[in-house]
Amino acid sequence: MSVAGTMYTSAAIAEAMAAIAFDADGLVPCIAQQHDSGEILMMAWMNRDAVAETMRTGRVCYWSRSRQALWRKGETSGHGQRLVDLRIDCDGDTLLALVDQAGVACHTGRRNCFFRALRDDALTEIAPVLVDPKTMYGG
Amino acid sequence: MSVAGTMYTSAAIAEAMAAIAFDADGLVPCIAQQHDSGEILMMAWMNRDAVAETMRTGRVCYWSRSRQALWRKGETSGHGQRLVDLRIDCDGDTLLALVDQAGVACHTGRRNCFFRALRDDALTEIAPVLVDPKTMYGG
Question: Which residues bind Zn(2+) per the record (chains A, B) (predicted)?
Answer without folding.
Answer: 90, 106, 113
